Amino acid sequence: MMTSIPDTALPEPGSRSHDADGRLVGLHFDSQQPPAPGGHIWLIAIDGSQPSRLAVAEAIRLAGESRDCRLHLVHVQPWMSREAADSELARRGWAASQAAREALATAGLPWRLHVAMGEAAESIVRIASEQGCRGIVVGSRGLGTAANLLIGSVATKVIHLSPLPVLVAGRLTAR
Q1: Cross-strand bridge partners of residue 41
Q2: Per-position DSSP letters for the chain, written without gaps between them
Q3: What pLDDT, in 10s, does the model give residues 35-91?
Q4: Is the pTM of this model over 0.70?
Q5: Over the stretch 115-154, which tens digit does the pLDDT of each residue have?
Q6: Rounded Cα–Cα distance for residues 71 and 91 (Å)
Q7: Is 161 within 8 Å of 125 (Cβ atoms)?
Q8: Which of 24, 48, 51, 76 could form a disulfide with 85 if both were Cys (CB 3.0 to 4.6 A apart)?
Q9: Per-residue model confidence (pLDDT) at position 65
Q10: Smallest Cα–Cα separation from 74: which of 41, 38, 107, 32?
């Protein structure tokens, strides 16, 4: 059963993209003051988890060290039907990005949120390339080598797929 996320305060997306079948597969939102053109772009992969909040904090630190830095957020949802994508993709991405958007607003940093549907690691790397990013910041749950071998890790997959530098934020635990 799919639960609907309320669309209160859901702004109109800046753009939408559809696949060959007309299914909504991506969109983006800008903060009230969109990021200025030029400078270094860091893409921050977010899912609403504690590790993704650590990734946002690290990206804020990077932006503070650079005079000309833009921050883009990306949230990827798994594949869903055309009807579900039309009704839920924007809402789910908006809800999952709330803490990240609030942290960037508190830091006085404009942002662009990309919401995509597909395989997480592949979508993150594709969007980073399309946006001309300098690098990707991603959180890690710190499951350890054995768990990553068994269940995989989005961070590990991004590291292997990306031609760009990947900064992994999170706690490492020995297992």
Answers
A1: 70
A2: -PPPPP-TT-PPPSEEEE-TTS-EEEEEEE-SSPPPSSSEEEEEE--SSHHHHHHHHHHHHHHHH-SSEEEEEEEEEPP--HHHHHHHHHHHHHHHTHHHHHHHHHTT--EEEEEEES-HHHHHHHHHHHTT-SEEEEEE----HHHHHHH--HHHHHHHH-SS-EEEEE-----
A3: 677 778 999 999 989 999 999 999 999 898 887 889 999 999 999 999 999 999 999
A4: yes
A5: 999 999 999 999 999 999 999 999 987 555 544 443 358 9
A6: 21
A7: yes
A8: 24
A9: 85
A10: 41
Cα 129 from chain centroid (whole Å): 13
Helix (H) or strand (E) holding 162: none
Instruction: Give the span between the Cα atoms of 56 and 162, in whole angstroms.
Output: 19
Q: Which of 135, 155, 132 is nearest to 145 (CA)?
A: 155
Give the homologous superfamily in CATH for domain 18-170. HUPs (3.40.50.620)
* Section 90-104 average pLDDT: 96
For 47, residues 6+ apart whose C-beta sits below 8 A from its C-beta are 75, 76, 96, 139
